[in-house]
Amino acid sequence: MAAMIRLFRSSSSSSYSRYFSTAAVSETVKSQSYPRNPVTTNVEPKGKTVQWVFLGCPGVGKGTYASRLSTLLGVPHIATGDLVRDELKSSGSLSKQLAEIVNQGKLVSDEIILNLLSKRLENGEAKGEAGFILDGFPRTVRQAEILTEVTDIDLVVNLKLPESVLVEKCLGRRICSECGKNFNVASIDVAGENGAPRITMAPLNPPTQCISKLITRADDTEDIVKERLRIYWDKSQPVEDFYRSQGKLLEFDLPGGIPESWPKLLEVLNLDEQEHKLSAAA
Ligand code: AMP
């Protein structure tokens, strides 16, 4: 992890000079085949960690599923969007500059993102963290190339939903300003695309204690969500191809909300929730 942090730091300050080859941060771990995707899911045997990336359009639910898996697997969930929002909340000099970019739905510069990510990894390392599930990074092919140069990624999960659902989900998203948890007030029921089944998602309602503290993200307005989706197709969709060509991309069409999608996701990742809970408790 230390090597990875150093390399991120050097890449954010040296205009991406060719730093060096891969830091063998992760060990290659047990691979199991997944029936529907030509990808192996490198799930950790006891004592090993995963280095996974979650890709997907804004609103698809990367944060929700990455966070659940991070709890299950005991690895940190690192969302660059959260790092950016934490920086926005601070009174640092970067905050004003970031607010303008983020509130327009644009991407922050690679240099800023790599700096925030290095800091987060450094803090994690000090706490003894190992492995990660990255969410929101990489978002450009350049970022993916840098990540490839600094560490080995085991698996890239690409979450997918029809665009009409993505917009509704972003507009319905609410965050508790106190506990930070995400909820969704949208009740989704849309016809599937290209003969796919209907997609329904019940609202993910907050508990009573959060109701009066709910806030909406400044970049979750209809115009900004559409701009973020446009940027996704332009800059981030090529990242899918980048990992697809490496045979690391696991495509996952979400069949609905959490109750339908979570068990299916565990199934395609060859993960047994009960087994992991028991081994974590042991
Ligand atoms: P998210 O929560 O992932 O939707 O991210 C919120 C915002 O943070 C994005 O719209 C970008 O402005 C910024 N951001 C997050 N991750 C990245 C990244 N990897 N590269 C550039 N900007 C990012």
UniProtKB/TrEMBL annotation:
Task: State the superkingdom.
Answer: Eukaryota
Sample GO molecular function, one term:
ATP binding
Q: Which GO terms describe its biological process?
A: amino acid biosynthetic process; root development; shoot system development
Q: Which reaction does it catalyse?
A: AMP + ATP = 2 ADP
Which CDD domains does the UniProt record give?
A: ADK
Q: Which family does it belong to?
A: Belongs to the adenylate kinase family.
Its protein name is adenylate kinase
